[in-house]
Each structure stands twice: as structure tokens, then as C-alpha cells.
Amino acid sequence: MSIKSESYKDKKVISIGTVSEITGLSERQIRYYEERNLIFPYRTKKGTRKYSFSDVERLMEIAEMIEEGVQTFEIRKKILKKEKEAVREKMIRGQLNARFGVLRLP
């Protein structure tokens, strides 16, 4: 049995209509956030957008920030900062694991 490294949360399998229902955002809003480089759906060969559960979570965060009056360029900066911090944390965990053996941090 093979274990895939991709989490179920990151699999791009959800249609834009379903994402719209889950988030309460219109399809137009979702496409706008894609245009602003805040979300990156997978495109099938026919051009259909597919989203992951992680994308849905990000859209909910974006919607909350928009409601608070945060501009899309500021949101993009916050998202990039958060992603860089996640990569850094993963690298540190890898270094600790390599040095001290299997280490699981919360």
C-alpha cells in the first residue's frame, strides 16, 4: 500500500459551485480572488476550476479580511508571509528531525 504525500485537504476536487455554496461567496467573487492572485485553483483540460479544502479555508479567511476592510493587495502580503512562515517551520522541523530523530511538534 502506498501513502501519498498530498493531504486530503490539498486535493483539488471541489467545483466552484460547491465552493460557492460552502463559503457563501458568489462564483464571481471567487473568480475575482483568483484574478487578484489570492487563490489558485487547478484547471482541468476543459478549463473547469477545481478547489481543495485548503482553498475553501483560505477563501473564508479572505472573506473575513474583506469584511474588516482589508484591501486585496494587503491580503496577498499577509498570505505570502503566512506561507513563508509555514515553509520556515517545516524546514526547522526537518533539521531537528535529522539531528535528533523523529520529532513531531504540534
What does it look like?
The protein has helices spanning 16-23, 27-35, 53-67, 72-100; strands spanning 14-15, 42-43, 49-51. The protein has one domain: Multidrug-efflux Transporter Regulator, Chain: A, Domain 2 (Orthogonal Bundle), CATH 1.10.1660.10. The two termini are 27 Å apart. By secondary structure, it is mainly alpha-helical. Strand 2 (42-43) and strand 3 form a beta hairpin. Helix content is 58%, strand content 7%. It has a three-stranded antiparallel beta sheet.
User: H/E order of the elements?
Assistant: EHHEEHH
- Tell me the number of structural domains: 1
Task: Tell me the structural class.
Answer: mainly alpha
Mean pLDDT: 88
For this structure, what is the CATH class? Mainly Alpha
Spatial strand order of the main sheet: 1-3-2
Number of E-state strands: 3
CATH architecture: Orthogonal Bundle
Distance between the termini: 27 Å
Question: What is the name of the CATH topology?
Answer: Multidrug-efflux Transporter Regulator, Chain: A, Domain 2
List the uncertain runs: none
Please give the radius of gyration in angstroms: 17 Å
Set out the fold topology.
Layout: E1 14-15, H1 16-23, H2 27-35, E2 42-43, E3 49-51, H3 53-67, H4 72-100
Antiparallel strand pairs: 1-3, 2-3
